[in-house]
Amino acid sequence: MALKPVIGKLVSKRVVLASASPRRQEILANVGLRFEVVPSWFKETLEKSSFAVPYEYAIETAKQKALEVANRMHLKHLRTPDIVIGADTIVTVGKQILEKPVDKQDAYKMLSSLSGKEHSVFTGVAIVHCSSKDNRLETEVTDFYEETKVKFAELSEELLWEYIHSGEPMDKAGGYGIQALGGMLVEYVHGDFLNVVGFPLNHFCKKLAELYYPPLKHTIQHVKHDSIPSVETFENLSDGESDSSNPMQHKSANKLERNGVPLSGAIHTPVNSGSIQPVCTVAVENQSGVMEYPAKFPSKIVELMDGFRASKALFVASKLKVFDLLKDKCILKPVDVANKIEASVCGTERLLDACASLGLLEKTHQGYSNTDSANTYLVSDREYSLHGYIIHSNDRLWHLFTHLEVAVKEGTMQTHQAFGKETEDLFQDSSYHSVEAKQRFMTAMHSIAKLTARDVATAFDLSQFRSVCDLGGCTGVLAHELVQKNPNLNVTVFDLPDVIANVSCFQPSGQHITPVAFTAGDFFKDNLPEADLYILSLILHDLNDEKIHILLSKISAICKPGSALLLAEIVLDEEKTHPPRAVLQSLSMTEGKQRSGSEYKQLLEKYGFTNVQIKITGNVLDAILGFKKTSAH
Ligand SMILES: C[S@@+](CC[C@H](N)C(=O)[O-])C[C@H]1O[C@@H](n2cnc3c(N)ncnc32)[C@H](O)[C@@H]1O
Question: Which ipTM was obtained for this model?
Answer without folding.
Answer: 0.99
